[in-house]
Amino acid sequence: MSQSSTVDMPPTFSDQAAAPILGDEAQRLISCNQKLQELGIDDTIKLPRIVVIGDQSTGKSSLIEAISTIKVPKDTNLCTKCPIAINLTNGSTPSSPWRCTVRIEEKYSFNTRQKKVSKANPLGPWQLQKDTKVTTIRTTEDAKELCALIDVAQRLLLNPSRDRGSLVDIEVPSDKLEKFSPNTIRVDISAGEWPNLSFIDLPGVIQTPGRGQPEYYVDVVTSLARTYAKDDNNVIMLTLPINHDVSNSKSYSIIQQENAQSRAIAIFTKVDLAREEERRDCLDKYFGDEAEEEFEYGHQMVMLASGPGLEIETEDMFFSKQPWSRLPQAVQQRLGVRNLTGLLRRILFQKTSETLPGNLQKIQVRLGEVRDKLDAMPEPPDALELPYQLREQIHVFEGNIKQLFTSSQDTTATSSSSRNKLVQSMQRFGSRISKGKPTMLRKTDAESEKLSRAERSLREGSSVDPVSIDTDSESGRPAMTSFLPKQSPRKANKADTRVQCFRLEEIRHMNHERYQSSVPGEIEPTAVEQMHRMSIQYWGITFKEFMSEVSKLVHKEVLQCVLNTFGNQRHLALYAQVEALTREYLDDVVQSEWTHLDRLCDAEQKHPLTFNTDSVKESEMESLTQLREKRAEARLKIARAIQKSQNAGKKKVKEVTLEDLGPDPWDVEVKMAAKTKAYYDVASHRFVDSVCQQVFAHLVPRCQGALVQYIKQHLGLNDIPRNRTRIVALMSEDAAREAYRAQMISEMERLNEGHAYIASVLGTVNGPRISDGTAGDSIYADAIMSDENVASPTNISPSKRKAAIEQDDVEAESPTKRNQVRHGAAVREHTPLVNRSRSFEPEE
């Protein structure tokens, strides 16, 4: 680790400055601002901060050292590459020892893939995080350790991938570190009789990247300065070397672009290095009678160039000599770090008192939000009671499950709805099976061809060859040749392909192949049985769809019951476990019932059987009548079409009748089709009833009963003493939620502490007021009178004093506004901006 030179124990501030600039109550007001920063509630409230912005090598770090008496690393590769927030605090007693704590505050994460600076990513690879991570480096009472601790902190921030849990032996070479980080090093120092003052030192703004610096470095450093400059809560200390042209300062242009002059103070540095004419030009231009007040808090001068740092006594001696000693008193009040520190404290006092009432309200609002979030989160349960609470929940769940798919009068609307959904699914299943009833084509292929030829002849006006319309064979008996269908069977219902449509030739072929009787023209029973199997061949598909629908419905309704019972514990491992066990059980039960019902469907398809002969005969007679009627209509249509085509152009011929046609040569096949339709009617009703009965008699009860026992067994509720640890683990808050709860509780505690602190301060600080010189008029006036180096109220210009008093009288009806007006006037009048009427020529 590159070690920086150690520093000597810094002198107490009482050695550097005169009596405290502000009174005790005002000191407390400023310390309140620091206290709120320590509480880490910056995201909720707006705290005034003093931010040091300047180009590189403008004496910025030396200025910080002079004000705070701490020394930052001076290594060439480790000069200020990240913001350093310094909080100086008055010790509890004048003899309180010097004490310092160094922390790092990480608001930004580092993305190695994002190097380009844009409006969306103004800091390039550094991206704002949701939460700020704070890591304490160390607390020390040895000032010699401070520089090394700051070195460690900066190396950690410039090495964002390093584990923050280990803060020692950081041996990363400087050339391997990032060149910049927007994350902050925070240095909190307290000592007896020190001033209460807080400020942030930013990395120096540069024009071009230096050696070893990436191209985006210039842009990200500029973006960081711009971010701080545009924040209305920040008071800007702009460092400008007296021997450089202000217009060439990039930091100065940033202040102008962000319109931050109303919150800025310009500090000219390196006065001792400037030539006499450069000093005089600066005094005339920025401190003379005709000088424009571009910056709200005016201009200051500091030496900051002699040696490695600035000693206050050295600077005092420098400004005590001519020509400085002969300048007007108002100008002398703007010379040196001692006067600058007093000004900064007065500014901080003003800004803090302006923001405290509003911050109190913001904390109240945020407290309400945090409380609401905590109230919305269920309280962590008692570990001893958890298993018994779970057992009660399971009991409630069991009652809810038993009401599903039931039809008793005690059922709820939800359970009644679940039964209705199941019944509707069964009705759809029955309807799909019913619509699958087999059909028969009324014409043979040969008859269809004859009809087509006849109709075509009629259209074309030509006759056709005489054809027999009575039979397709000489004897009317089945042809003994093997039957080979010329085309695939046509479907009667194109919208539903699950309907078996028999062709008369197909039926005759099946009867002929299985024919065993010696009497021709009879019906072979095995052929009819084959037709039965063919008619129900699509039941398997319809049955699987029904079971899938039932399975989804059962899962949905039971899991909704789980949600209704355990929904407020969805964030716990318990809910996931109960849901997983429920799914696992339902999958097993549905699969088991499905297997049983699938066997039933398979038996129907492989072994057509019924003993309900009465119903079958009744349905067969009805089906036969219907089929014969449709068959007769088809025969007549064909015969009459042929008759018309053969007698085209002749006188009217007697129309063919059924008696003329004679017996139907395909009547045996029609009878066989009627038998199959009759069997389908009886078997389909039996099948649908059996499947639905199994669902209600077996599947539903298994879901209602054994599920709860299955869950209790796997959760260990049957033996609570042995399984208590596991049950408690299931019902305990998950780590992320517990962390979130802890975060909310911590924030609420910090907000409460901040609220109480602000309230106590506001109760003792009534706000500064313009004094007429009488003792005790205000805490601010008392403080001013006690400092011999600061202009007393009698030094205020009469016109400004009169205007402030008149304004105060006009708005006396508003105590809050009156205090703000007096307080604002006091700060402006007692800054070195006042009393500009005097000449800068040395006094005689």
Automatic annotation (TrEMBL):
Single GO term (MF): GTP binding
Asked if the record carries the keyword Coiled coil, the reply is yes
Q: Which domain of life is it from?
A: Eukaryota
**Where do the GED domain residues begin and end?**
669-766
UniProt region (Disordered), positions on chain: 433-495, 791-844
The cross-references to SMART domains, in alphabetical order and at most eight, read: DYNc (SM00053)
> Which stretches make up the Dynamin-type G domain?
44-357
Instruction: Share an example GO biological-process annotation for this protein.
Output: receptor internalization
Compositionally biased intervals (Basic and acidic residues):
442-459
Coiled-coil stretches noted in the UniProt entry, renumbered to this chain: 617-644
A Pfam family assignment = Dynamin_N
What is any one of the record's Gene Ontology cellular component terms? Answer: plasma membrane
Q: Which UniProt keywords apply?
A: Coiled coil
Q: What is this protein called?
A: Dynamin family protein
Q: Which organism is it from?
A: Knufia fluminis
High-level lineage = Eukaryota, Fungi, Dikarya, Ascomycota, Pezizomycotina
